[in-house]
Amino acid sequence: MIRINLLPHRAEKRKQRRTQFYALSAAMIVLGALIGILVHSVYAGYIERQASRNAFLKAEIAKLDQQIAEIRRLREQIDALLARKKVIEDLQSTRAESVHLLNELAKGMPDGVYLKSVKQAGSRITLVGHAQSNARVSHLMRNLEDSPFLERPTLVEAKAVTVDDRRLSEFTLGIGIERTAVEEPAADAKGGKTQARGARK
């Protein structure tokens, strides 16, 4: 009977399988390392691109902040200019008020009445004066009420005083200015000047 010794063949097989296992393990380790490096590179690229985007956005936001500050500064300048323009327009629209006021006061002043002071606060006028009697004060109020440039004459105070050994009535009146009535003659005057200039030409 022939006997065959299989131990060397089995040992050789085991050795081959061990070698294949080691080679496969090394290949798996290398493949895992490559995959890890690849994933790291991909994520690093994503992070770098996102960082560059963030830097770009920060730069653009800084530019927008500067533009917003400039716009805010320009708006403040525009508001200041508009406020100055309004002041100038108000002054131009009311520059004839003093003339009209004095003219109307002169026309409406009855005999026996004279003024001590005339004060203006906005569209409200305060008159302080002396009259020979309260009836003359009432006459003055009626004349002022009939004026197209003045409105709402109101008697604030009336009291008896002695001036130069004469008994008089000291009064304080409040009246308003009808601004539309003051502005219309000014516009008419401007139109008349324009027509006169055209006729001269």
UniProtKB/TrEMBL annotation:
One of its GO terms (biological process) is type IV pilus-dependent motility. It comes from the Bacteria. Residues 182-201 are annotated as: Disordered. The chain crosses the membrane at residues 21-43. Residues 47-91 form a coiled coil. InterPro entries: Extracell_DNA_Util/SecSys_Comp (IPR052534), PilN (IPR007813). Keywords: Coiled coil, Membrane, Transmembrane, Transmembrane helix. This is Type IV fimbrial biogenesis protein PilN. The lineage of its organism: Bacteria, Pseudomonadati, Pseudomonadota, Betaproteobacteria, Rhodocyclales.
